[in-house]
Amino acid sequence: MITKPPKEILYYGKDEALPKQTPLRAGPLSLIYEAGDLRYIKWGGREIVRRIYVAVRDRNWATITPRLCDQHTEIREDSFRISYEVEHKQGAIDFLWKGEIIGDASGAITFQMEGVARSTFLRNRIGFCVLHPGQECAGARCRVEQVDGAVTTGQFPRFIAPQAPSKDMKAIAHEVAPEMWAELRFTGDAFEMEDQRNWLDASFKTFCTPLRLPFPVEIAEGTKISQSVTLRVQGRPAAVPSSAHGADITFEIKPSPALAVPKIGLGVASHGQPLTPREVERLKALHLAHLRVDLKLWETDCPMTLRRAAAEASALGIGLEAAVFVTNNAEAELKGLAELLGSVQPRVCRWAIFHVAEKSTTEPWVKLAREHLQAFDPSAKIGSGTNANFTELNRGRPPLQWLDFVCYSINPQVHAFDNSSLVETLEGHVAAIESARQFIGDRALAITPITLKPRFNPDATGPEPEPLPGELPAQVDVRQMSLFGAGWTLGSLKHVSECGVSSVTYYETTGWRGVMETELGSPCPGQFHSLPGSVFPLFHVLADVGEFAGGEVLVSKSSEPLKLHGLALRADQRRRVLLANVSAEPQAVIVTECGTRAVVKHLNETNAEKAMQSPEEFRAEAGQAQETIHGRLKLHLLPYALVRIDSE
């Protein structure tokens, strides 16, 4: 007998509470304190700093998990003082620091850390990181004071900067409003800024130590590190922006413009087991456009990989998106692939060409691929870009004259891993797509694949450690099987669709990196709490969108995008709105443009188990008819809940 899982597992995959968020004020500034970090520092209703925190990163840029203890707080109406200790321990790394955060009634906030290495280890970074919000700061005027005392003026990049916008800084101020500036001043190291939107984060990050200095660096036992960050607001603005929000979140649908629903596919399961007949039938409900297969042409099992993928795609009635990886022996490898295609005869809709040693694929390999693959099926598109993050494409521009489409992959966890940070990355989809358009023009854009965790580390300086017994692989996120995972997927689909991406590939077919669990169940049921043979909630998001394949996407807007995301679809006379509460609190939502009558269906903690274990029965159930008031529909969403609204 399967016992009922705790709500937290349904919410976000772990049977544990989220860190407490404490609202604070420092004079005119409001902010959130959470587990040693400061978040969402606002002046009135305008966000001026997204986050201030301390990071310890190892030689492969992995972030060492902080463990906080001995916390003391003094909170007043317009000021606060917080102190605590944090240790970072993993493998050879053992680093302890004491933090103190003071916010005073004048609007100044000072964050100090005093740390000591309790072992000798290699690090790429230790110290403060400060995030400026991407949407509010892009294009804003700024002043930078450098280590040598020089002051320069400029602005934050509007489109994503391939390289660091500012270096060797000891202070930076940006214009929040006319006659109003927010200044951050640093001590203890030289600081540098990078455009984190390169990696899907919706922020600009100021960090230490500058990347021009060698890394990794050995930190000897007993080494002490002391740093501080101070935030002050300066000037006399004409008015303070309103921070008042109504009790209800509004989700506004705009009748035009409309864009085509992108072609949506999945990746072949990495666990290596073929699809079962029941899994094939369930996947057909998603109305997929393609199945991605990775073909490493030098590997001996490449023919078997292609045959398996071709058989699964044929069973699903769709084509292959073939990601072809070559080495410097590409001529022979592509010739061998062409011969293999003659015997397997797969249906290929798209070729994505990558060189294993290049972060962004250059012209010679794409030209060779055209010579050897185009004759097999002239209608199949040939493209390239990067198999890694947008930053690789941004720094190594693709050879457009040889490409039918350009591609890159994304995941939301290069820098941060908590739920709030993942929600922030949904906004980051837009900046990357808009920036790509600046250099690819009207070429078709394919994002492939989108995963919750990185599939590999393109910047590693050493081998990736094997997981310890009982640990999940680095590529697996427990939120894959949760309501939060479904909400993040919906938010991702919203932004890629509204930005005109032509094709997108999500996750895998089955397993803990897929849209449903295998019939054998999770290999680590104590950590990944899926139900054997069940689908994940994100399966229903893809099915709801798949039913509108060939239709249109309407532009929509949430008044609180860090709490609620949604997607509006239209086909013939049908209209569908999908909403996701991506927060831990219930939300009241008002949806516009819903006609006179709507049919509403919820997916939440009350029925998630049934939706996962009996997806066919759940999808066959009718929703509840609700009358609207002047086309407006009011709904109440439980934590991490999803809702589907159908109307004419």
Quick tags:
single chain; 648 residues; alpha+beta; 16-stranded antiparallel sheet; nine-stranded mixed sheet; 12 helices; globular
What do you see in this structure?
Strand 28 (552-558) and strand 29 form a beta hairpin. Helix content is 19%, strand content 39%. The radius of gyration is 25 Å and the shape is globular. By secondary structure, the chain is an alpha+beta fold. The longest helix has 22 residues, at 419-440. Helix 5 runs parallel beside helix 6 (363-373). It has a 16-stranded antiparallel beta sheet that branches. Strands 33-32-35-30-29-28-19-31-34 form a 9-stranded mixed beta sheet, with helices on one face.
Summarize the structure.
The chain has 648 residues and is of the alpha+beta class.
How much β-strand is present in the residues?
A: 35-45%
Total beta-strand segments: 35
Mean pLDDT: 95
Query: What is the rounded distance between the termini?
Result: 43 Å
- Biggest pleated-sheet summary: 16 strands, antiparallel
> What would you call the shape?
globular
Uncertain segments of ≥5 residues (pLDDT<50)? none
Query: Cα-atom Rg, whole angstroms?
Result: 25 Å
Structural class: alpha+beta
